Amino acid sequence: xxxxxxxxxxxxxxxxxxxxxxxxxxxxxxxxxxxxxxxxxxxxxxxxxxxxxxxxxxxxxxxxxxxxxxxxxxxxxxxxxxxxxxxxxxxxxxxxxxxxxxxxxxxxxxxxxxxxxxxxxxxxxxxxxxxxxxxxxxxxxxxxxxxxxxxxxxxxxxxxxxxxxxxxxxxxxxxxxxxxxxxxxxxxxxxxxxxxxxxxxxxxxxxxxxxxxxxxxxxxxxxxxxxxxxxxxxxxxxxxxxxxxxxxxxxxxxxxxxxxxxxxxxxxxxxxxxxxxxxxxxxxx
Length: 285
Fold this sequence. Notes:
single chain
């Protein structure tokens, strides 16, 4: 199957021209402004979550899929955030837009935070995981996001994007974006975790995928936050189920992963995993 007919393009099939273009964009960046830019973008994204004291970090470029200097790595020497959304962030992949000399540069950036609990292998896994996300972002499309939705997904948190659409578009646009973003995030974490968490058995892998993407919890929070109507909730449920079914039918290893967890449906497995994780959290309190 060629990429034009795929809804889910494997990260390994990212066209090399897209990576070469990213490397050329990085080469154009004014090095004297790079540090301030990437840190300002980090602060703008997480806003009040960023620690008040000066951030300690180092910056270098790295190889992506065999292409040198195709991604910018920002290593924080000290954890830069509060406990964001109740958990610590090991890494974050972004595509940053920067205007320079009349051009708009698209810069792949990975932010990596220190974690004293992690082993060198785990830190290496985090970097590989985030590089997969960069490859996903550099694909020619991001099913089921529209091009405009994709730009919002890459530039804002879900909450900030929702507020932006409510102010500049309408409620339907905000809800469509939330639903499609939850679907896309699920695919992102299914693929990235599958290719990096090789030491996990399939049962634990599904849990890791769920914790990384949190589709049901995220949807519940947005429903509560916006007081969704029954018709809007029904649309979200049907869209997410159809998305999961399409992923399972198109990707053989996803289907195999589902069946190895004694389930016939990726959607049903995600719902089951959600309930198990919620029950575990309640039991541990």
